[in-house]
Each structure stands twice: as structure tokens, then as C-alpha cells.
Amino acid sequence: MVTHVPAETSGDERGALLSFVEAQRGAIRRSLIGLTEEQAASRPSASELSLSGLLKHVAEGELNWLRMAQQRPSETSRTEETWADSFRLVGEETAEGMLGFWDGVVAEVEKFIRSVPSLDDTFPLPEAPWFPKEGRVSMRWLLLHLVEEHARHAGHADIIRESLDGRTAFELVAEAGGYADQS
Q: How far apart are CA 90 and CA 76, in angstroms?
């Protein structure tokens, strides 16, 4: 059972890139199918990662990249002291609430990307040791980076989910698509 990213309308590079970002978002979302809050927050390996923590991290990360592209401050920026909280739910946060938050971010990203005059438009990167001094990246780069980042974490999510209950990404794709058991 594979997922298929639909072909873009001829010449619709934005649509194609947004579809690939969405395909990776879907992999992360599906990793949470049927889990309780406790299961989603559990860490079944030596890693500190949990499915709900990954969900929060990608949602906040996507918002942060959007705000950089918009050249606005992010509502979810972190300090060294609060960095770990971007990988775990705190207080009254829930996986369902985080999915809703991410849905809002996704809608905002789509609207923003569709509104920029060109994918060649650039924005400055913040000062950080891992970015080039006075670096700039394009909107195209942003979308490709979201594919890369979400795919990395979708792989983490696959391993965590399979460690929790043995369910594979293929089974979750089938369930989400309403297909018969493909195992």
C-alpha cells in the first residue's frame, strides 16, 4: 500500500510542492490513528521522541518557518530553556488540539504560498550558527525544506508507532483510506 502524490496541473509548481508537503504531513497525522493520549505521549525507545511530541514539533516548526517567510515574529518561538517543550505536550495540550492547531497553520501556509508573487522571492534567515551569515532562501526552498523536515519526522513516527503496537505505515494508510486490512 503506497501513498500517491497527485500530479500537479501542468505548470503548477506551487501546487506540486504543496502536495508533496501535504503527503508528508499525512504520514505524521496517520501515525496517531487510534491511539490514546497516553500512547501518543509514550516513548517506547531510548529516544525522547513521542508521537504527540513530534506532532507538536512539526506544527510549531512549520509555523516558525511561515513566520520567517512572512518576516513576522512567531507565536511559538522557543528559548534554550523552553526548547524541550517543543517536543512534548504540556499543561492542557492534547494530540487532538495540536492537530487542530496544525490544521490552522497548514491553511495559512497554503494561503501565503499561493499569494506570493514568485517562488523565487526570498526571505532572510535568522542569525544562527547553522545558517550562513546574511543568508536568504526562496519560497521554493521553504517548501522543499518542509518536505525534508516532515519526511524525517514521518520516519521517526513510523518507528515509534510500530514500536507501540506493531502497526505499520502501510496498515495506517489503508485504514485512513478506508481500504480492507492490507496486512
A: 13
